[in-house]
Amino acid sequence: MFDSPMSVSAYEVLRVTVDVDDEALRRAYRARLRETHPDTGGDAALFVQVQRAWELVGTPEARAAYDRGRGTSSAEWGAGPAASAPSRPADTRPRARSHGQPGGWRRERYLSLIREWVGRGVDLADPYDPALVRSAPPEIRHILADALAEEETARLVSELGMGYTVWHDVFADRDGRDPEQKIDHLVLGPSGLYAMLSEDFGGPVGIRRGEISGANVIGSPVTQLVSRARVVARAAGVRFSGAIVVLPDDAVLDAITDLGKVRGTPVALVTRSALTTLLRRGIPGAREVGGTELFDIRTRLQQRVRHV
């Protein structure tokens, strides 16, 4: 929960300073539990966040490990999806077909903005230095966090196998020129064709009238995703089975949240750990795709999709 450029530290969640003594830390934890407990009118997602923060710093051993490890994510933030994965035996299983560069546009945007923010003429040795990133304005940190989210989604989707095809960073405006109006991922498989948004708001979010709400949520992410999917659908002559917003595991309480239909499109929120399960089984009410139709949709998208 605390390795995102957008997320706050365990100490900030508990509202204490990093040099707080153990007894004061314990009192702060109990106070935050009472404040956020759902039975007393608190926010359930924040309640879970407080508990997870305590798991990280609640014992001298855990706290020492957390303090040693905090702020050492520079290599991971700057590595990209392939290099950031931990060392493991080679996986020779067939991967999903993939087109485009996940997180590529947002990484370029982040690098441009962080250099502009630091100032011209300054030697920026490591644009992913944790101290630098965490001192940057929220809007810059959010761009990097979303790039990392897109890369992680791409890694998860790739593990679904060769029955799936994914297009990353797809233009979704009528003129095909505005990268701000993009869809992070289009995923096609037996369960359907989905437009997907990978997001990281840096903390818990809620749902209000079918839309995502929260302190760092700007605009209407769900509505925007559905609108962009309609643009791609018209251009390619295809029908989407649904839309999916992928969030970090600690952003929502439920692994899968069915939002119903938005402008006629079934929409679901899903945590990263439940994404492959949802894509295999499909969103409730979504139209499955099979047989020759799957190949027809893939061909149409391959001919029409333009990458940012």
Automatic annotation (TrEMBL):
Chain ranges of the NERD domain: 145-255
Gene3D superfamilies associated with the record: DnaJ domain (1.10.287.110)
Cited InterPro entries: DnaJ_domain (IPR001623), J_dom_sf (IPR036869), NERD (IPR011528)
Span list, region Disordered: 65-104
Top-level taxon: Bacteria
J domain sequence ranges: 9-70
Biased composition (Low complexity): 73-89
Protein name: Molecular chaperone DnaJ
Organism lineage: Bacteria, Bacillati, Actinomycetota, Actinomycetes, Micrococcales
